[in-house]
Amino acid sequence: MWDCFAAGRRTGALHIMDSIIRREYYRWASSLPMNTVVLFVPQQEAWVVERMGRYHRILEPGLNFLIPVLDRVRYVQSLKEIVIDVPEQSAVSLDNVTLQIDGVLYLRILDPFKASYGVEDPEYAVTQLAQTTMRSELGKLTLDKVFRERESLNSNIVHSINQASDEWGIRCLRYEIKDISVPPRVKESMQMQVEAERKKRATVLESEGTRESAINVAEGRKQAQILASEGEKAEHINKAAGEAQAVLAIAEAKAKAIRLLSEALTEQNGNAAASLSVAEQYVSAFSNLAKQTNTVLLPSNTGDVTGMVTQAMTIYSQLAKTTPAGSSAAAAEEKAELPDGLASAEEQRTQ
């Protein structure tokens, strides 16, 4: 117990000494000069002179004259930019997280009179104001925003300090946060959150890649089906065109064959040639009987080839004689268009 008490006393004494050292450090300006008749004021310094204990004037850089007994240099203010290290302090964020934060303060004395008589220790006052302002500004933000909005936090602290330090003749130029320390458990949770965010982004990117891959595969299949259908369509069109041309060629060949046959029939011994052709077809058809099916229908006079040929020629003659009038007219028109030799042959066949 006494050890704890002694340790506490030592800690308190160290804090007091540190505060005294810091205050002495803040008042780093040159020591007061001797009261002589002739004084040389350095550049970027302002010397505040009192006459008989009352403010008299501020000496400008260069040569100045004083009355040794009546005048006295009371304050020496530096007009350069002053850099002050703001000690580390604890602050609580909006989401109740305790932070250890420190910073650097940049300020300049604009009015030596106010800096001398407006506040006892202007640098120390500005430092304390920066610490309290930092606590209040951190209390308005959550932990995540403290790290993201560091620049806006600095500007808010500068604005708040300048509002209060105008009466002191001091202008705060910049405030920069050096370090922000969080408790170990909070740091672990933040690390886990970062890892979770990275895993989330990786999962999202992987899913997007899978989706793009599926879309590309589907597009490829669609294009392949379209091309295949177009190829099949072209194939059917070409096949139909080929079949049409084949049918047309067969019809033209058959028409030409019939034309040649009719011309041959009109010639001498045409009927004998036709009888021979019918006889050959009959023999060929008779030889193919019972090759495809078991059921065969035979005429009673199967072996009478002469009778069959005569019967076929008789049917042909009867059909030629019973041609309709329209067909006769068409035949007459066709005969009129034929040459003289073919027309005479056609007449002989009809007779």
From TrEMBL:
Residues 324-351 are annotated as: Disordered. Residues 36-194 form the Band domain. It comes from the Eukaryota. It holds the Pfam family Band_7_C. The keyword Hydrolase does not apply. InterPro entries: Band7/mec-2_domain, Band_7, Band_7/SPFH_dom_sf, STML2-like_C, Stomatin_HflK_fam. GO terms for cellular component: mitochondrial inner membrane. It is a lipid-anchor. CDD domains: SPFH_paraslipin. GO terms for biological process: mitochondrion organization. It is found in: Mitochondrion inner membrane. Keywords: Mitochondrion. PANTHER family: STOMATIN-LIKE PROTEIN 2, MITOCHONDRIAL (PTHR43327:SF10). Belongs to the band 7/mec-2 family. Mitochondrial protein that probably regulates the biogenesis and the activity of mitochondria. Stimulates cardiolipin biosynthesis, binds cardiolipin-enriched membranes where it recruits and stabilizes some proteins including prohibitin and may therefore act in the organization of functional microdomains in mitochondrial membranes. Through regulation of the mitochondrial function may play a role into several biological processes including cell migration, cell proliferation, T-cell activation, calcium homeostasis and cellular response to stress. This is Stomatin-like protein 2, mitochondrial. It comes from Poecilia latipinna. The lineage of its organism: Eukaryota, Metazoa, Chordata, Craniata, Vertebrata.
